Amino acid sequence: MGVIAPFAFVCASLILYWAKWPLTGEIILLMIVALPVFFYFQAKSGFTGFNQDLKAAWWLVAYLPGMAILSLIGSKQFGGMGLLPYGWDMLVVIVFSLVFYYWGVHTGYRSAYLDERDTIRAKEAEYATSGLSGEEWMSAR
Q: Does residue 86 contact residue 35 with C-beta atoms inside 8 Å?
């Protein structure tokens, strides 16, 4: 995932932080309010894979309240209580975000959809480097 994915996650976290308290807390609350929809679809599928999904999502369960707390105690420029001075607050958000990014990446799992996507991409790469037309490539297989 190189540099772009963690950088993008840090940027998203900073944007959430810059939304200012109490809006940050309200945004996070909206995400929590959507949980019944998630549980509805889990119930429809008989909670298949629920334990695996929950294990992979614990980072998010900790990240969202953590961001709300950082926003609450952050600098006054962003609506916080001012316990974290301006400048340092953003540094804390950056470090916090990187910790949670890597936690999330390392607790994720490969799904059947990812395996299917990789198979399709491998076939596309094979075709692209074969130098054959589509019909020739299909008949050679």
A: no
CA dist 115 to 18, 62, 118, 122, Å? 37, 28, 5, 11
| Average pLDDT value for the chain | 89
Burial class (CB in 10 A: 0-12, 13-18, 19+), 78: buried
Q: Which of 10-24, 66-80, 113-127 has the lowest average pLDDT?
A: 113-127
Q: How far apart are CA 90 and CA 13, in angstroms?
A: 10
3 state SS of 74:
coil
22 and 51 housed in the same domain: yes
Say if residue 58 is in the same domain as residue 8.
yes
- The CA distance from 23 to 74, in Å, is 13
Q: Say if residue 137's pLDDT is above 70.
A: no
* Helix residue ranges per DSSP H, 34-87: 35-44, 50-73
